[in-house]
Design goal:
Structural class: alpha/beta
CATH topology of one domain: Rossmann fold
Bound molecules: S-adenosyl-L-homocysteine
Shape: globular
Length: 221
């Protein structure tokens, strides 16, 4: 497939999967139109990269459905000057969308093989406002805190406390919270009057494994 064809399919993805489901922040839509999602999935899956579902990226992990990426990105209410932390780099696709919209993106994955691949793709695409590390993201990135926005792209049993503590005043944390099979997309906002919660609908993510997430090898529920 030629680059022009990918661009046409990508525009169609934004119109039919994202706009039509109600995501209408123009900056988010423009970012999703720009980032070449196919480069973040294994080459045999390029022709499926713009379809309406998640895809495997190796190590039993998945790149999220495009609509979920758009929904979570919109929920972060990013400003151009924001510093953002992502937990769960995976393919690096969500990080690229964030890097289009914010001043600086920090991302953590616990799996070095995925992190390395993501780092390469983001570098090849020329994102210089992106930094990542390998480790347990449930503990956040204290040396770089506070963050204006934090996004967790794996399902947590509860809101990881260190992430709330690493929010700037006015900051937003978006995290799927629930059991192994389904979660509720939860937004935590740090205000002068304390933390406020919004619930943005159901979703299904792979597990967040770490000190403030699920235990590795623990029961599958
Ligand atoms: N945002 C990714 C999709 C993430 S899939 C994308 O755009 O492709 C979930 C990722 O979370 C996996 O790569 C998994 O390794 C990672 N993960 C799970 N628990 C984690 C933890 N405690 N810290 C950091 N990454 C974690």
């Amino acid at each position: 497939m030629l680059e022009d064809e990918f661009t046409a399919i990508r525009n169609r993805m934004v119109d039919t999967q994202i706009k039509m489901r109600g995501v209408d922040d123009p900056r988010v839509l423009a970012a999703m139109q720009r980032v070449p999602r196919h480069l973040f999935v294994p080459q045999p899956l390029w022709d499926q990269a713009y379809n309406d579902y998640p895809l495997p990226i190796g190590e039993d992990q998945t790149i999220s459905q495009p609509y979920i990426v758009a929904l979570m990105t919109e929920a972060l209410e990013l400003q151009a000057g924001d510093r953002v932390l992502e937990i769960g780099t995976g393919s690096g696709y969500q990080a690229a969308v964030l890097a289009e919209l914010a001043a600086k993106v920090y991302s953590i994955d616990r799996l070095a093989s995925l992190a390395e691949k993501a780092r390469q793709v983001l570098a090849e695409l020329g994102y210089t406002n992106f930094q990542m590390r390998v480790g347990d993201g449930t503990q956040g990135w204290p040396e770089e805190a506070p963050f204006d926005a934090i996004l967790v792209t794996a399902g947590a049993p509860q809101v990881p406390r260190p992430l709330v503590e690493q929010l700037a005043l006015g900051g937003r944390l978006v995290v799927p919270v629930g059991d192994r099979f389904s979660q509720t997309l939860t937004r935590v906002r740090l205000t002068r009057d304390g933390v406020k919660f919004d619930y943005l609908g159901g979703c299904r993510f792979v597990r967040l494994i770490g000190k403030y997430g699920w235990q590795e090898g623990g029961p599958e529920y």
